[in-house]
Each structure stands twice: as structure tokens, then as C-alpha cells.
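Hi, here's the filled form for the chain we discussed.

Project: internal
Contact: R.S.
Residues: 232
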Amino acid sequence: MKKVVVVIVIFALVCLSFQMKKNQKDVDVLLQLNFQNESLVLNDKKYVTKTNDTVTITKMKFYLSNIVLELEDGTQYKESNSVHLVDAETLSSLEFHLKNVPDIKIKKIRFDIGIDSLTSVSENFDGDLDPALGMYWAWNTGYINMKLEGKSSSCTNVKKEFQFHIGGYLPKQNALQKIEFEIDENQIINIEVELSKWLDSLSLKETNSIMIPGEKAIAMARIYKNIFEIKQ
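And the returned structure, exactly as it came back:
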């Protein structure tokens, strides 16, 4: 009799597990990096901004983290270990998958651009948080949230280069940016990053280097927050 009960319980658990998986889905997140509505090209293409700076982009990397989906029934899906390093040089970094999302209509997506203070002090250096990836400063300054580098004849330094390494997690240096979008698509979420909006707002002759946390970094983060949008 006991064996029969055990078999029934195991069968019930298997059925429950199958039903739960049946009511879940994976959601693809795709990022498109653009400059002036065309796919961003590193190193080999010159662009002219609205402030008449001729620029070549050599590097663009940023963190996308703490992804939350708001569902139609009022519940939320929170991605576990939600840290993704997006690198313009690495095509595979422009796509990732949200696993086991409840099969309910998605109303909104929320995410951070950068690494929050808890993660910065956690001493978790696994995966995309590995300092060897070139996005970590030190324990007291944390991670670089956004890294943009390039060349322009407008720059006043000897190498004619611009470098923006934006980060910081301490209370008066926190450059983390929080973003929220309403969405209609439920299987694929397309995030477009229009880099020209950032550089169109700058004069590289006046501003071509921010390499430490502080007020200038925070102000720059508030500018590049606007380069993200959802493409339905």
C-alpha cells in the first residue's frame, strides 16, 4: 500500500512540474546598437554629430541588470542573477533569454543601466562581473556602468581621443540609471540603443574625458539614459 502511495505522489509531482513548465515561456531580449538609425560600426566608419564633431567609435560596453517584467495580472517576474554585459565587439552579448517567465501578457519592463551598490560590494566576481572584462575599478568605486571610447579631431588632447568611463555607487556618486518601458510584445523584447543621441548633446572640444565617479559622471549618465528605447 505504501508503495502505491509513493508512486501516486511521485506521479502527481511530475504532472505538477510538467504543468508549471507548460505555463511558462522564455522571452528573448535583443539589443540593436545604432548610430543615426544604422547599425553601429566600430573603428572603420566616421560619423558627424549634430554638434559637427566627426567621430569614430572604437569601444562601447555597458551593463544591463536587475530586469523585472510587470505582468498583466499584477505579478512580477524578476530575473535571478540579473547581470548582462553588452559589448559592441561581441555579437553574442546583444541577445539573451529570460527563462521560465509566467505565460501571462507582459505590460512593462524595468531594468538598470549599470551595477547597483549591493552587487558592487558583494565580492561576486563571476560571469559578466569578472574584473578581467575591463569594467571594474576597485572596491571603493565599483564597476564602470557605461564605457564609450572613440576618436575625433575635435578633441583637444594629443591623441585626439574621447573616453567616457561612467560609474560609481556611493551615495553622492551613484550613476546607476533606472529605465522603464511599456511593451506590447510578449515573446521578443527589442531594445534599441541610439548612440547618436548621446554624442549629439556634447561638444567633444569641451568634454572629451570622464574617468572617475562624481557629479560629471552622474550628469553624463542622465544624458545617455535617453539613448535606450523599445522597438515594438
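Let me know if anything looks off before we file it.
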